[in-house]
Write a structure and sequence with these properties.
Elements (H helix, E strand, L loop, with lengths): L8 H6 L1 H4 L5 H9 L2 E5 L5 H11 L3 E5 L24 H12 L4 E5 L8 H5 L4 E4 L4 H14 L3 E7 L2 E7 L8 H4 L12 H4 L5 H18 L8 E6 L4 E6 L21 H5 L13
Parallel strand pairs: 1-2, 1-4, 2-3, 4-5
Antiparallel strand pairs: 5-6, 6-7, 7-8
Helix pairs in contact: 4-5, 4-10
């Protein structure tokens, strides 16, 4: 039975620490419960981001991932356990997120995200959280979010370092292309599988991504739109770079030339996707 404020007794108990925060309260908690978030990748970044979003009571979480759980994932991808090795990550993630919070609707999307399906996948969600580990998908997510007017929370990790930002270029912030107009040459920026990653790092960066997502939903605090937050784990330091909207940006600039989704593998100079490739950090 729902209480006068619209929450069941179980929800009042679950969200009690939110409900007493003036910045959240009942109104904010209802916003969270009425919001849908699309999580790109159920790996190192998607694991902590997904867990905290589910714990916060996000109403619907879509999880996009094409990979199966591998033993090498378990050092950092805390959505999955030994018993999940060989399972699709979307299934393992859905089970874990539902066990975290049965109120949350979890939709597993076991597809390779590409130019033909991205807009259809994105359109039903309010915010996109990108925890992928390859440049074609990052550019694809940026462009699709821009065309649909969706905020995009970006995170990336490399060895002991990470970064977080928010791109909402349809509403005036810089986009990922303003930060990286061109992709790096093939092989110049190795993936986690090639360069390694300190297991705790994605926990820190993914949690920051969840924090930024929840702030955006609630409309509280200072957004990372126009700012790139950098974390160096070895020095235990945070730094911030100001990002400016590039008037010559091919996507969100004054005279855009990218007006529809393109072939992002070709744009980044990488081979076409193979199902065995790791899509999440």
């Amino acid at each position: 039975m729902a209480s006068p404020n619209g929450f069941t007794p179980d929800q009042v108990a679950r969200y009690a620490r939110h409900l007493i925060l003036p910045e959240v309260g009942g109104k904010g908690q209802r916003k969270l419960m009425g919001t849908s978030v699309l999580l790109l990748g159920a790996g190192g970044l998607g694991s902590p981001a997904g867990l905290y979003l589910a714990a916060a009571g996000i109403g619907k979480i879509g999880v996009v991932d094409f990979d199966d759980v591998d033993a090498s994932n378990l050092q950092r991808q805390i959505l999955h356990g030994v018993e999940d090795i060989g399972r699709p990550k979307t299934e393992s993630a859905a089970d874990r997120l539902q066990s975290m919070n049965p109120d949350v609707e979890v939709v597993g999307i076991r597809e390779h995200l590409n130019s033909t399906n991205a807009l259809d996948v994105f359109k039903d969600y309010d915010i996109v959280v990108d925890g992928t580990d390859n440049f074609p998908t990052r550019y694809l997510a940026n462009d699709a979010a821009h065309f649909l007017g969706k905020p995009l929370v970006h995170g990336a990790i490399f060895r002991f370092e990470g970064q977080v930002s928010l791109f909402d270029s349809a509403h005036g912030t810089p986009c990922y292309r303003c930060l990286h107009p061109e992709p790096p040459p093939p092989g110049a920026s190795p993936s986690c599988a090639e360069a390694g990653v300190f297991g705790v790092l994605p926990g820190i960066v993914g949690s920051l991504m969840a924090f930024e997502t929840i702030k955006k939903i609630l409309g509280i605090g200072e957004s990372l739109g126009g700012r790139l937050l950098l974390f160096d784990g070895l020095d235990m330091q945070f730094r911030e770079l100001k990002l400016r909207k590039n008037p010559r940006c091919v996507l969100c600039g004054e005279n855009p030339t990218v007006t529809q989704l393109i072939d992002y593998e070709q744009f980044c100079g990488v081979p076409s996707y193979e199902p065995s490739e790791q899509a999440s950090a």
